[in-house]
Amino acid sequence: MSMLVEISDLTKRYITTTALSDVTLDVPEGHIMGLLGPNGSGKTTLMKILAGLVSPTSGSVLVDGMAPGVATKAIVSFLPDVNHLDRWMSVGEAGDFYADFFSDFDRKRFQELLDIMDLSSGQKIGSLSKGMVEKARLSLVFSRRARLYVLDEPFGGLDPLARSQVLDALVANFRTDCSMVLSTQMVADVERFFDDVVFLDRGCVVLSGEAEKLRTRRGASIEDIYKEVYGHVETR
Q1: What is the largest CA-CA distance in the chain?
Q2: d(CA 49, CA 148)
Q3: Are 147 and 177 in contact (CB under 8 A)?
Q4: Strands 32-36, 179-183: parallel, antiparallel or unpaired by DSSP?
Q5: Mean pLDDT of the chain
Q6: Which of 33, 57, 78, 151 has its CA 20 to 30 A from that of 188?
Q7: CB atoms within 10 A of CB 96
Q8: What pLDDT score does 235 carry?
Q9: By the 8 A CB rule, do 89 and 61 touch?
Q10: Residue 107: inside a domain, yes or no?
Q11: d(CA 42, CA 205)
């Protein structure tokens, strides 16, 4: 099995905090990995490292055989956990920006996703609700023909109908020659899509494995395993 992401003994320290400690994990090509954990567990730091936005303190990180940097940014499509679009832009102008910046941006796919999300290219980002902004951002990310999709809390602020639209887009966009790392606390909504799961707590991997094997071995859903590991689950 070909590994698109290979992480070994990854540690990231800030001045007063260790965000990640000796993290080791692989993401096979064609797999969707659920990156799970409460706030402060290290998920966002790990995703920023995969996206080439943060450098590790120590350890090894390879994306398609390359250390995160300029080359990998061309094959990684990253959705940060905060809105990165300017309010003055229209949805269509945001698409133009992505098309100028990323050679793998598919304009036809972008229009298809806007239709799925009930958005129009003329709408201004500043006029959209929080949920509509999230749908616009996801449409941009999914319109890239990337090798690795890194999605940090893609369901924040979405109502159940919008989450369903986003999940439809996720399934329609996924290809066997790419992989996805998806961080979420809304485990019940998406666990059926996970091939693998990694549970992080205070920067350390506390449980990981193939999703179906974990379900079978523990006799529980991924959501119930989340409750066991952390003592609670945030679903809304």
Answers
A1: 51
A2: 13
A3: yes
A4: parallel
A5: 92
A6: 78
A7: 15
A8: 45
A9: no
A10: yes
A11: 10
Q: Which of 232, 234, 195, 200 is nearest to 215 (CA)?
A: 195
- Asked if residues 70 and 52 have their Cβ atoms less than 8 Å apart, the reply is yes
Q: Distance of CA 160 to CAs 155, 156, 204, 206, Å?
A: 9, 11, 31, 30
Whether 108 is in a domain gets the answer yes
Is the residue at 236 inside a domain?
no
Q: How many domains does the chain have?
A: 1
- Give ∠ CA 223-228-153 in degrees, rounded to 5: 45
Cα separation, 199 vs 164, in Å, equals 24
Name which of 127-141, 164-178, 199-213 the model is least confident about.
164-178
- Cβ contact 131:164 at 8 Å: no
Is residue 235 one of the residues assigned to a domain? no
Q: What is the CATH number for 213?
A: 3.40.50.300
Identify the domain containing residue 47 by its residue range: 3-230
Q: Are strands 58-63 and 3-13 parallel, antiparallel or unpaired?
A: antiparallel
Residue 18, number of CB atoms within 10 A of its CB: 16
Whole-model pTM? 0.93
Q: What is the pLDDT of residue 125?
A: 95
Burial of 129 (0-12, 13-18, 19+ CB in 10 A): exposed
Contact between residue 133 and residue 83 where contact means Cβ atoms under 8 Å apart: yes
Sign of CA dihedral 137, 140, 143, 149: negative
